[in-house]
Amino acid sequence: MKKEMIRIENLKKSFGELEVLKEVNLEVHESDVVVLIGASGSGKSTLLRCINFLEIKNGGKIVIEGEEIDPKSHNLNEVRQRVGMVFQHFNLFPHKTVLENVMEAPVLVKKLNKAEAKKEAISLLGKVGLSDKADVYPAKLSGGQKQRVAIARALAMKPDIMLFDEPTSALDPELVGEVLATMKELAQEGMTMVVVTHEMGFAKEVADEVVYMHDGQIWERGKPDELFNNPKEQRTKDFLSSIL
Ligand code: ADP
Ligand code: MG
After folding, report:
1. Where is it localised (predicted)?
2. N or C: which terminus of the chain carries fewer CB neighbours within 10 A?
């Protein structure tokens, strides 16, 4: 049995009167890739943000690598180091070079010495195929390159889990492939990943499980093959035919 990396039990999250997550249950095992799909507003981003404690739940349990995280008593910065996140908009520091962007958090947060951080950043830039862009500023990069820098920056903290929130949906179509290829490599290296995406080709090829969210709940989940070719719920069928 593979190690349980994320366990969510009866997770609830509201914004004022609006119940955005209603008793969500989910487990993610080591090296698994879980793809979250669902209509806009169904709660996908809120679920990722709760797993990373950018939002604080109103009820239920979040267990990360076997440890239940209580936002009141845990150091959330320490938890966030273990759970990296990549957003739709890359949020790179515009006044720092690519290399400095990747080095920033290990030096500031992990207190890594600069020489060591630089060495690791260079190696990560190689991994995402951007060795030649180390000294360039983000404004000079394409969207796909920026997103690959954002992935390298998240990996620089050596997370055990990576969350991706629609990482390719702000990109021009011709740049989507290079980012998905980087994510696929990461998956093949054994990274545990939760990915919100509408790239069904990626989901079919890379996901171990696809989770369909509707109205703040997990409506159906299964292997990509099952969920895409033989969905059990009418709502899943309707959603899939709306996007395919
Ligand atoms: P998705 O990512 O599936 O599109 P979200 O998790 O972003 O869905 O949003 C789910 C619902 O929660 C939406 O109705 C959205 O307007 C609402 N919501 C998300 N974040 C906030 C917030 N910070 N304050 C108020 N409402 C929010
Ligand atoms: Mg979203």
Report:
1. Cell membrane
2. N
